[in-house]
Amino acid sequence: MAIATINPATGETLKSFESLSDADVKNAISTAHEAFGDYRKTSFEQRAEWMLKAADILEQDKADFAKIMTLEMGKPYKSAVAEVEKCASVCRYYADKAAEFLADVYVETDANKSFVKYQPLGVILAVMPWNFPFWQVFRFVAPTLMAGNVGLLKHASNVPQCALAIENIIQRAGFPQGVFQSLLIGSDKVANIVADERVKAATLTGSEGAGASLAAIAGKHLKKTVLELGGSDPFIVLASADIEVAAVTGTTARMLNNGQSCIAAKRFIVAEDIADEFEKLLLEKFQALKIGDPMQEDTNIGPLATADILKELDEQVQKSINNGAKVLMGGKPLLNMKGNYYPPTILSDISPDSATAKEEFFGPVAMLFRVKDIDEAITIANNTPFGLGASAWTTDTAEQQRLISEIEAGAVFINSLVKSDPRMPFGGTKLSGYGRELSIQGIHEFVNVKTVWVK
What we know:
Layout lengths: L3 E3 L6 E4 L5 H18 L4 H17 L1 H12 L3 H25 L3 E2 L6 E8 L2 E5 L7 H12 L3 E5 L5 H13 L7 E3 L7 H6 L3 E7 L2 H13 L3 E5 L4 E5 L5 H13 L9 E7 H16 L19 H16 L3 E4 L15 E4 L16 E7 L2 H9 L3 E2 L1 E5 L3 H10 L4 E4 L14 E2 L2 E2 L4 H5 L3 E8 L1
Helix pairs in contact: 2-4, 3-4, 3-6, 4-5, 9-10
C-alpha cells in the first residue's frame, strides 16, 4: 500500500509521502539508541512534566487532530474529538502513576536487602493500525516513555499525517530529540528493524496474520512482543436483562468507529424468550442512525477506511447470505454515495458452525443468534478462534458469575459495552493475541524485571 492520505468519503488522494530509505531507517534507529543512553537517566518527575505537556497539547488542539483523523480514515468527527481527549487522559494517568508502578519492591529473604527493580529495555518498535490512529499510539507512548524507553512508530500507511502529528506533539511537549520517531515506511521494512540488535522489543495491534508475522520475526531474534489482534466479540443478552438499555448500548458497541473496532460487539447472542423484542429494538436503533459526511457533527456512520475493506466486508456478508443467513436490514454497499460507505446491517438465521459465524466482520454488520439458555449462549460465545472481549447482560448474579468464569476472553463486561480504560489492563487470548496494555500490567511489559540481592 502506498503511503498516502486518501479521503475515504470521496476516494480522493490528498497527499502522498515517500517511504524512508533503508539508510534513513538505520539512522533513525541510531538516533533512538543514542537518545536512550541519556533519556533512561531522566527522573520520573521530568518525564511526567513532559507527558503532562503532551496532554495539554492534545486537549488544546483536539479539533485540529480530530480533523486529521476523520480526513484520513473516516471516523465521525465527534468520535475523533473524543479519541484525542482519551489520549490526553492516558498521558495524565501514566504521568501520575509511573513512579508508583515502577518503584522498587522489597522482599523479605535471608539477604540483608533484596528487592525487585524495574528498568527500561531501550528502543521499542510499535506497529500500529489505522482504526484508532491516535489512541492506539498514545496507549503505547505513555507507558513506554514514562518507563524510560524510547519508541519507534511504524503506523498504518493510510494515516501518515496522524503519525507525523503524534511525533510533533511529543517534540512540542519537550521530550528530547530521538525519544519518539514516526517512520513512514511500508511493512516490508519491519523485519530488518526487529532484527537490529539495538531494537529490544516490539508491539503490534492489527490482524492475526500481521501479529503472527511479527512474532515469528521477533522469536527468531529472541525479542519480546505484545500483540493485540482481532476479535469477534459476543454480546449476550439473557432474559433478566434491561432489553431497552441493552439494545441502545449494543448499537453503540457495534457501530463505534463505523464498526471498525476490534472490541466492537459483533455477535449478538440473545435468549429466545426476549429475542423478538430485542430484534425489534435493535432494528429501530440501527435504522435511526444517520449515514453521511463524517465531518458533520450529526453523522453517526461514516465511510469505511479503504475501498479494500469495503470489498472484503461485502464479500463476507454475501457469503453469509449464500449460506442461508437472512438480511434484516442493509446487506449491500451504498453505491449511490461517493466513498466507501456500507450501511448498518443485521444478519440472522446464521448457523453457529458456519465459517462466517466465527470470522471478524470489520464494519457495521451485526450477527444475531438465538439461544435457549445460558449454556448455549456460552458455547456460541466461545465458538470462535478469537478471545478479546465480551459483553453480557443479566441481572442474575449466578448467571453473571458463570459468564465471568466461563467466557474465553481477555475482558468480560457485565451490563456494559467493552471498552479500554487506562486504569485496567487490556488484551486478549487465543488468536486475539497476548500480553497486556494499560494499567500497571501494561507498563511492566517492556521493562527488565531485575532481582537484586545484597548479602
